[in-house]
Structures are given as structure tokens and as C-alpha cells.
UniProtKB/TrEMBL annotation:
PANTHER family per the UniProt record, alphabetical: DYNACTIN SUBUNIT P25, PROTEIN YRDA
UniProt lineage: Bacteria, Pseudomonadati, Pseudomonadota, Gammaproteobacteria, Alteromonadales
Protein name as catalogued: Carnitine operon protein CaiE
Amino acid sequence: MTIRSYKGVIPSFNASVYIDESSVLVGDITLGDDSSVWPLVAARGDVNYIRIGERTNIQDGSVLHLSRATKSNPEGYPLIIGDDVTVGHKVMLHGCQLGNRILVGMGAIIMDNAIVEDNVIIGGGSLVPPNKRLESGYLYVGSPVKQARALTEQELTFLKVSADNYVLLKNEYLSDDVI
């Protein structure tokens, strides 16, 4: 894996975290216990910070970035991802906030200052525009996203199951049995 410092700050994580050797993590990034970062992920914590919660997985080819502080926006927009989040393949997350138990479908884009509450599914290929808030308990699809319907009990349960499955998979990768 490529872990690089930026202005003396290096990504922070413990031994329970899996980071694929082809991923690049730079700067002010913190990963929670049992999280995983899969092949070809690029995460740059250079002009702000990235916080990734526990049991969260960032899948292949995803890009994580943020927005710097400016006069009009003195805090900028960090990237904050909660616990038990599944970020699908080739997702773009930029200066947004994701709550807990979320599934972001493949190829989705979530832009600056968008806020995704807990227990949400975002369909593959969807675009969440800047400053948009997605309410808890719904499926969102489209470009730009629209609230499609309430999540079923089965889907709500699946959000945690998806995260748990990635914890199991990263444990296999961290074991001495995988070469």
C-alpha cells in the first residue's frame, strides 16, 4: 500500500484495518476499526481531512477528496463517513458527510456539503448534488437523485449485513492464509 504524509500528517489506522497495496492514502485520514480500503482507491486528505468510521468498506476504484477552506467557506468541506457504510466500486465522494448504515451504489457521485443521514441506499450511477440532504430510511436514485421510496425492513437489515460481510472478507485478506 502507498501511505504518504502531507505536511507531516500521515493516515492513521490500526492493525484491524485492511488497505490494499494498490491504494493510495495521503495526509489527514483516520480509519476506524475493522474498516477496509480495496484496490485502486485514491484518498487525499491534503486540503482538509477524511474520517472513516468502523466496519466501513471503500471498494475498488473509488476516489475520496474534500474542499479547502476559503474566505466564503472558512471550514471547507471535510469528508466524513460513518460506521457500517458500504461504498461501492468507482464511487466519487467529495467533501460530503455520510451517516451510518449506508450503501452507496457503484459509480455514484456525492458532492460538496451533501449530507446523507443514517439508513440510506443510493442507487448506482446516482448524482447527489452539492448541499443536498438525503433523509434517513429511503432509497435515492437518479441524476440528480430523487427519493424513490421507503426502504423495506429487509433492505434496512441488509445495510448492516453488507458491512459485516466486508469485515469477514478483510479478515481473510489480513490472515496468513491468503497469498
